[in-house]
Request: fold
Amino acid sequence: MQLKEKFPGIFVKGREIYTENLVKGFRYSDEKIIKIKGVEYREFNPFRSKLAAAVAKGFEHLPFPEKRDWIMLYLGAAHGYTVSYVSDILCNGFIYAVEFSDRCFKELLPVCKERKNIAPIFADARKPEEYSWIEEVHALYVDIAQPDATEIAMRNADEFLKQNGILFLAIKTRSIDVTQKPKKICQAEVEKLSQAGWKILEWRMLDPFEKDHGFIIAKK
Ligand SMILES: C[S@@+](CC[C@H](N)C(=O)[O-])C[C@H]1O[C@@H](n2cnc3c(N)ncnc32)[C@H](O)[C@@H]1O
Reply:
C-alpha cells in the first residue's frame, strides 16, 4: 500500500497515519518509523493524540498550509507527543508550546532541544500576559482538559491569533459535566464559539480513539 499525503504534512497508508520526520533518527518513544526513498516517516497514534484521532475520524479539512510554514501557539503541550508531530507538519514554521505542569514541562524540554522549531514556555494558559512577548500566530491549538477551555482559547485568540487564523480545540467533556451526554456538551461549546463570531469549519467526537472528547476546528 502506498503512502498518500492526505493533508499538508500528514500522510496515510491504509489506517496508519504518518508525518515526515523533521529530525532524522528522532523517535518520541516506540513509534514505528518507515523509510521511503531516503525519507523517514513516523507513525502518529490516534489513541495518543487528538490531532491524529481527528485524521482517523475522517475530518475533511485539516487546514494546514501547503508551505507548512505557520506560526502556532500550542496550549497544553504536556510531554510533547503531539507537539513533536506538529513540528514535523509545520517543518518550515514555528510553535510556541505552553505547559504549566513542571513534571510535564521537564519531559517536554528534551523534545524541544532536538527540534529547533518549538519554543517551550512554562506558563499558565489562563494568563496570556505571561507570554505576551510572542508574535502573532496563524493557528492556535488548545488541548488543556479544562472546564473553561473554550473561554481560555478565545482569550488567547484575542491576544495572539491573526484575523482568519485557525483554532484547533480539544474538548474533554468529562471536565465540563459528567452528567450530560458528551456530544451535547461539545455542541454547546461549538455554539459558544459561533455566538462569539467564530466560523466553525468542522467538529466531531473522537470516540473510540479519545473517549468523550470532541475536536473543533474554527476560523477567527
Ligand atoms: C490532555 S493533556 C495534553 C496532551 C498533549 N496536547 C498531547 O497531545 O501530547 C493536557 C495538558 O494541559 C496542561 N494544562 C492544563 N491547564 C493548563 C493551563 N491553564 N496552562 C497550561 N497548561 C495547562 C496539563 O498540565 C496537561 O499537560
